[in-house]
Amino acid sequence: MELTERQETILQIVKDNGPITGEHIADRLSLTRATLRPDLAILTMSGFLEARPRVGYYYTGKTDTEELNNQLQKLTVKHYQSIAVVVSESDSVYDAICTMFLEDVGTLFVVDKQGYLAGVLSRKDLLRASLGRQDTEAIPVSIIMTRMPNITICKKEDLVVYAATKLIERQIDALPVVKDAGGEKYEVVGRITKTNITKVLVDLANNQLF
Ligand code: ADP
After folding, report:
1. Are the beta carbons of 71 and 57 closer than 8 angstroms?
2. Bridge partners of 175?
3. Could you tell me the residue ranges of all domains in the chain?
4. Which one of 6, 67, 152, 182 counts the least CB within 10 Å of its CB?
5. Is the pLDDT of residue 163 over 90?
6. Which pTM does this prediction carry?
7. Which segments constitute the CBS domain (predicted)?
């Protein structure tokens, strides 16, 4: 949450002098108590200050890190996911390489005949499969992909922090965002990548979360 200059000043006054009454804060700013009322309401509602009757306002000690943490707990995958690029199991390694270039993505998801998630193809999977061979058109992606059930997935309502943790733990670049279709089958509805996670950082820095 971005505070106005006046709210920052109030916060500083309370930090240095609290507990302090609204009246006294107003005096220090040469403003009326009524003018300050909305700012004090915002600062108390957002948890920066607490007000005690007959005592005044005091600083809750909520740190910027806690505030940042609060913000991050609100961000879910659906706010930051991208469109998934998929190929089918029977497509060749050659086709997959072309799709990767054309769609400008680093990870492809592979779907079976029913359209459910079957595998993942990374850049290095495709490089490895094509090193020193001319017949990439003859190799189906199904024999080189990382396949279900060894795929790390996430759902659109998961926290972005959860997805980021999985990317780090598994040392991978992307997770498919899936919808449960029952019977251990998943429909691919998006993808979340290291680039999407980097966007969270940039948005936080610019105070422009989704
Ligand atoms: P690269 O292989 O280009 O470095 P990654 O680090 O994303 O890219 O992939 C490393 C390996 O992990 C690859 O073999 C890939 O198939 C596999 N992989 C990628 N994403 C996932 C995922 N979401 N779940 C399981 N395995 C994955």
Report:
1. no
2. 192
3. 5-63, 77-204
4. 182
5. yes
6. 0.76
7. 80-137, 145-209
H-only helix segments in 61-159: 64-72, 77-80, 93-103, 123-130
SS3 content of the chain, % helix, strand, coil (to 5): 45, 25, 30
Looking at domain 5-63, its CATH architecture is Orthogonal Bundle (1.10)
Backbone angles phi, psi at 134, to 5 degrees: -100, -15
Looking at domain 77-204, its CATH superfamily turns out to be CBS-domain (3.10.580.10)
Say yes or no: CB of residue 173 within 6 Å of ligand 1: yes
Give yes or no for residue 192 CB within 6 A of ligand 1. Answer: no
1 Cα–ligand 1 center, Å: 36
What tens digit of pLDDT does each residue of 30-49 get?
999 999 999 999 999 988 99
Are residues 159 and 69 in contact, defined by beta-carbon separation less than 8 angstroms? no
Q: What sign for the dihedral angle of Cα 64, 65, 70, 73? A: positive
Which ligand 1 atom sits nearest the alpha carbon of residue 121?
A: 16
**pLDDT tens digit sequence for 167-205:** 999 999 999 999 999 999 999 999 999 999 999 999 988
With the most atoms of ligand 1 within 8 angstroms of its CB, the residue from 122, 171, 178 to mutate is 122
Distances (CA, A) of 149 to 91, 120, 145, 152: 20, 11, 12, 8
Parallel/antiparallel/unpaired status of strands 107-111 and 86-88: parallel
